[in-house]
Amino acid sequence: MLIEILRAVLVAHGTSVEARHASPVAQGHSMMKRFGILVMSLALGLALAVWGPALQQERVVLGQRPAWACGLGQPQTMSADGELAVTTPILPTTPPGAPSGLFPGQYTVNQPVTFTEDLSRLPTPINPDQYQWKWDFGDGQTGSGFKTTHMYTKPGTYAVRLQFIDPKDPTNSDPNFDSASITVIAQHFDNPPVAQISASDTYVQLGMSLSYSAAGSHSLVGGSLSYTWDFNDTSDEAHGEQVAHKFILPGRTFVALIVKDARGAVSVATVPVVVALELPQAHLSASSLSAHVGASLTFDASQSSPTSQPGDVIVKYHWLFGDGTDTTTVSPTVSHRFTKAGTYVVKVQAIDKAGLPGTAHLTVQITDPGLLGLGSKAPVLLGGFSLITLLLVLGIVGNVVRERREEQRRRALEAARRARLKARWATRTDPRSSSLARPPRRDE
Fold first, then answer.
1. 314: exposed, middle or buried (C-beta count within 10 Å: 0-12, 13-18, 19+)?
2. In a 10 Å sphere around its CB, with 0-12 CB exposed, 13-18 middle and 19+ buried, how is residue 378 labelled?
3. Which end of the chain is more exposed for a tag (fewer CB within 10 A), N or C?
4. pLDDT for 29
5. How many whole angstroms separate alpha carbon 244 and alpha carbon 235?
6. Can you tell me the distance from the alpha carbon of 69 to that of 121, in angstroms, rounded to the nearest whole number?
7. Tens digits of per-residue pLDDT, 161-197?
8. Are strands 112-117 and 148-151 parallel, antiparallel or unpaired?
């Protein structure tokens, strides 16, 4: 395409040279022509300076020509049994012609594998029905069709390659549209490990970093796990349960986590990520960073700003309150009540008209006011009050018991005294008792 444009410029310039020997009118027309050619040349030079590197990498689509699926900075689109390939890191030791992607999943011999392409991931999606598709499975076998199935009969690592042919325009064809290596093992592992990813965000500005964790991954029967991270760009793989990565290529892609247990069984988890040249700047404040359960807090993102693109504005705000609830508003402010005590991370996404979000967050502490608004001190204070009350009650009960016992003892003593007096009186008034008590006379 560039050669044809340059050739047209040179032909036009040659015509203008021949016009120097023409009539004055023709010469005037030639002068205007040369001026037009000069303007075209300057515009072409500027275009080459801006778009030349991208054209060399096939990242710009001319006319209806589809973008390559596996060029630098393009996402992997080939899938095997529904699992997308991940980008192979480009290293100094990478041999020329090596597959641009790899399938990290578990594939075994004598098991059919279905291959296809997810063309929606291309910068310029195409209609697959307009092309002829030819597959090379790397084991000497080939296939055709946009979606095909193949069975490997021997274990090993194979390079799967796909080419498309435009039957209406042979020049609009690609012999290496996409490629990925697949590893086929002899034995299928039951109960493979579970791979889980948690990401700090799914949007990031070019040149910035996101953090990832595989803490939710676990082994079922295979012992300890190893962790391999593929970021779908030209960077090396990373290893470990916790990693951070700086994104150096713009576009929509995904991060893949490959976990392997001690047996060699693997599982894969992916999380999407959008790497934007620029993201809106989100700012978040709150009416208070601490409150009681049920109190209303107001969150404010009005200081957020869109990107520097002309005409860009913030069109909506998506709020996540950390308690399992979320909402979307046009207003930059929102109120929320927390129904349980705890520490919550409140996050807001300020979303511009292109759908790109800027993210900000803060932490709020929600406490339970308890009885009479005593808060966390309520159990201690109420416990102390209850103990004092119990002691008072026990004291009162003890005093009542003591008084009753004293009253009973007093009554018993009084009854005994009365009984003695009654006995004495009875003795004095009884004649028998008097004769017996009288002393004998001398004549008796």
1. buried
2. middle
3. C
4. 40
5. 12
6. 9
7. 999 888 888 787 888 889 999 999 888 888 889 999 9
8. antiparallel
For residues 138 and 161, the answer to whether their CB atoms sit within 8 Å is yes
Phi, psi angles (nearest 5°) of residue 275 = -105, 110
The CA distance from 103 to 99, in Å, is 11
Contacts of 36 (CB under 8 A, 6+ apart): none
Find tokens 């209609």 and name the residue: 127
**Distance in angstroms (rounded) separating the CA atoms of residues 394 and 396:** 5
Instruction: Say what the pTM is.
Output: 0.58
Q: Supply the DSSP string of 26-68, one letter for each residue.
A: HHHHHHHHHHHHHHHHHHHHHHHHHHHHHHHTT-S--TTPPPP
Give the residue carrying structure tokens 């953090």.
211
Q: Residue holding tokens 């080459």?
A: 48
391 Rama class: left (phi>0) / alpha (psi -120 to 50) / beta: alpha
Other Cβ atoms within 10 Å of 149 Cβ, number: 12
- State which amino acid sits at residue 332: P
